[in-house]
Amino acid sequence: MSSVIHFQNVSHKFKNHTILNDVTLQIKDTEKVSIIGPAACGKSVLIKIACGLIVPDQGTVSLFDTPLNQCSETELTDLRKDIGMLFQSGALFDFMSTADNVAFPLRQQAILSEDIIAKKVSERLDAVGLGSSSALPISALSGGMQRRVGIARAGIALPKLVIYDEPSAGLDPVTTSKIYDLLSNDQKEHLNTVIVISSDIESLQKFTDRMIMPYHGDIIYDGSSDKIFDCKNPIVHQFIRGETQGPL
Amino acid sequence: MQNSKTQNTTRTISDIGLLWMETCRHLTKKRKSNITTATLEQMFNIGNRSVIFLLITVGFIGMVMIYQSCFQLQRITGDLSMIGPNFIKIVIFEIGPSITGLMLATRVGAGIAAELAAMKVTEQIDALRMTGVSPVEYLILPRFTASVVMTMMLTILTISIAIVTGGISAYIWFDINPRLFFRLDQVESWDVITAVLKAFFYGQIIPIVSSFFGFRAQNGSAGVGDATTSAVIGSSFGIILCNFFISAIILILRDIIT
Ligand SMILES: Nc1ncnc2c1ncn2[C@@H]1O[C@H](COP(=O)(O)OP(=O)(O)OP(=O)(O)O)[C@@H](O)[C@H]1O
Ligand SMILES: [Mg+2]
């Protein structure tokens, strides 16, 4: 199995706030990984570093076995064509309609004809329960609807790596289950690598095989999703059980 | 403190230069995505945003300039026969391009900066990058091309309007015969070359400087405001400097050649 993301001794800090401290980490092809951790522990920054949106202070980050520090902007742009990403903020294009947002990655590939794109987009929007909202501008969508448009956009081009930053934030339990089913089916069909950031431990345990927990610069848990409840680290212990008493 | 400020300014200028070079590189590169529609849309935007504004401003400037110069000239020499040709000359090589440039810097520059800055702070630019799209190609290039074309066209328009309003004012207030006023005998090809060059470069300065500040925006809505202000100040300043250099270079060239 080839590696999709590889961090070698990566360190990064904002002012005096250490996000990563000499972290070495590898995510391989077809893995399903979740990143968990308390608010502001650096989950979003971690994946942005992985995609080259943030350049780390030290260390080497490789994406699909290509070291990013040796990439030109053009090569980086090409590498990213194989990644789909749901931003925590949604980051939907507010100058386009819902359908155009979802169609955007496909149009950029410039492989499929408009007819096929339109069909795929409507299938995808149906899958996230937004079939009837395709013509609406982004500003007319509710927060949860925007999240689902983001999810549809991230996965539509069947990228080799899909990253979902908080896919279930603001969604009701039923929709959340449906979304995880969709992600799971996608992954089964296309065997791509999936990274999910979320705090919904139960759903993540069902969907992903591996969990990573960054905290104060270190990776304090990196292992099987099933065994996380056996972890002795007091921070992990407290976090996954949502207890109020403890080091957090 | 002083030193770091100077360093920052130097850094900003060189970064703007780099962005300009990258945009030009994309201009010559073979592109997969079709940006013609986007460019036409931007051209329409620029025209739509600025035509009325430009016409009114430049119309009044033409009137005031003629009124003031005729008024002064009448007191000194009393001979107003050469006012028209000289006015036309100065409007072509200086007033027309510069007023157009400065007005577009406020109208178009502010618009570009605000739009891109809003996209930056809502992570839309990162989202573009993540789709394998170069933001320079997708966002700056159409604005750049549109701005160059429109600045040149609008410069022609402002020059014409200034000359017409000038001529009308001269006729109404000082009874100068339009046949005496509308003469091109003072206009040399150098003046036209200067005007074309100025419009060409102003049209590049505005989108590049404004996009630069838009792309650099951070810290939410306050950042959008800062980017817009910096874009207007930066592009106006760039235009004034560029005006100086083009005028100087043309003067020197002209001396060498003739
Ligand atoms: N551009 C930036 N400049 C300065 N600090 C930043 C920047 N981006 C993130 N940070 C800081 O880095 C820390 C980690 O941010 P990050 O967004 O990764 O948190 P997170 O783990 O995703 O949290 P959440 O679960 O709330 O989304 C935060 O303290 C944040 O203030
Ligand atoms: Mg986050």
Q: Helix count of chain A, per DSSP?
A: 8
Order of helices and strands of chain A: EEEHEEHEHHHEHEHEEH
Radius of gyration of chain A: 18 Å
Strand content of chain A: 25-35%
Q: Main sheet of chain B?
A: none
CATH class of the domain at 1-82 and 195-248 in chain A: Alpha Beta
Mean pLDDT of chain B: 93
- Distance from first to last alpha carbon of chain A: 36 Å
Give an account of the 3D structure:
The complex is a heterodimer of chains A (248) and B (258). Chain A has helices at residues 43-50, 73-80, 98-109, 114-127, 143-155, 173-190, 201-207, 234-241, and strands at 3-14, 17-28, 32-35, 58-63, 66-67, 83-86, 161-165, 193-197, 210-215, 218-224. Chain A is α/β, with parallel strands linked by helices and 248 residues long. Chain A has a domain at 1-82 and 195-248: P-loop containing nucleotide triphosphate hydrolases (Rossmann fold), CATH 3.40.50. In chain A, the strands form two sheets. Chain A has a six-stranded mixed β-sheet, sandwiched between helices. In chain A, strands 2-1-4-5 form a four-stranded antiparallel β-sheet, covered by helices on one side. In chain A, helix 3 packs across helix 4 (114-127) and helix 3 (98-109) packs parallel to helix 5 (143-155). The longest helix of chain A is centred in the last third of the chain and has 18 residues, at 173-190. The mean pLDDT of chain A is 93. Chain B has 258 residues and is mostly helical. Chains A and B meet through helix 2, strand 6 and helix 3 of A and helix 4 of B.
